[in-house]
Design goal:
This protein has 447 residues and is mainly α. It is 84% helix and 0% strand. It is built from 18 helices and no strands. Helix 2 runs antiparallel to helix 3, helix 3 packs antiparallel against helix 11 and helix 12 packs antiparallel against helix 13. The mean pLDDT is 88.
Length: 447
Amino acid sequence: MKKDSAASLSGHYGYRRIVRAMTPMVLMMLVTSIYSIVDGLFISNFAGSDAFAGMNLIWPAIAVVSALGLMIGSGGSALVSKTFGEGDHEKANGIFSMLVWVTLAAGAILAAVIFIFMPQIVDLLGADAAMKPHAVQYGRIVISILPFFMLQMAFQPFFMVAELPQLGTAMSLTSGVINIVLDALFVAGFRWGLTGAAIATALSLSAGGIIPMFFFASKRNTTQLKFTRCRMDWGSLAQSCTNGLSEFVGNIAFNIIGICYNLQLMNYIGAAGVSAYGIIMYLGFILCAVFIGYNMGISQVIAFNFGAGNKAEIRSLLNHSLVLISIGGIVMTLAAEIFAPVIARCFVSYDAGLCELATHAMRIYMLSTLICGFNMFTSAWFTALNNGIVSAVAAFVRTLVFELAAVFALPAIIGIEGIWMSVNVAEILALVLSMSLIFGFRKRYGY
């Protein structure tokens, strides 16, 4: 596969080049976000509301653990890009290879432990008697391929380092097609219900982790990013984890918040609230995927120029990114408001009351898309500058402080509407913090 010249880490990035280079990364994340959405569509329509609620209950916990792969990949790719920018290709490839093996080993250990304790985990998440068997069944099947799920997450930012973002898109499309076809076959065709959906997801996630591993190890790989002999480099591993801490905190916080939303909704509404929130999260996955994909791609360019000492280009990337994020936020918010009823009907057309609840909640919740892109970019910006501490603080405060506080405090004050409004209040507060960090560090980094 030929490298995309527009995605080369060097050279000037204007608006046209940024859009062309980042589009494959955005598409990759959009397709990746389809996994649980496709499962949700098939489970809701073919296995019933209890199975649908059970899957929505356990998925955030699975995503929390898989986020370790994203942490290693995001932080490691920034370090590898910076090292390439400094001209040390051998060291860069050694770090990359070491991180892949660490990801696989960590995934295998975690999968074994979580598989054993899955019933206890489901109990802690607040499952009722109807949900629990579905959540345990789905969770155990998907967690069994955790090493490859984590590897898929880790590889995603490295496709841009290899200057092959289109390969990431191709891999995501392949995995997505596998998931959709197998869901149709196992769930709709064979009527395997939740088990069929879980098997389909497990196989598709495995493909997304295994195929790139073979590509980077093959002789057909002509990119600058290659598997090489490596040794355990604790310093580089620590720096990678520190760099990627914000991505991990952001992802884990997103899913912890999801767990807390579910607990609150079980208290205020019951299983219907969990199902409605699950639909909101499906739309949220898609909208956030646009920002995540953009951040994954642009971070490597920023890190490369940071390593090369090109401050003028770093300043240009910041300004261009803020404009593009503004446009994206406005367009996606309008789309979410307009198509909320259609999205709700896709999942729960069989229940008019639940459909109305989901539509109403979605329209309140999705107003956050107007500004969440700026807050997500702030974390990515400092990750690219290899300042993982500031990046993690931005992500941590945004979610585990502002949103967690809002989701418990607002409902106590104004009732159920406070649950749906929590994210909007949190994003506004986080925007103030993001602006303060961006401007506060401009002299240190010269942008």
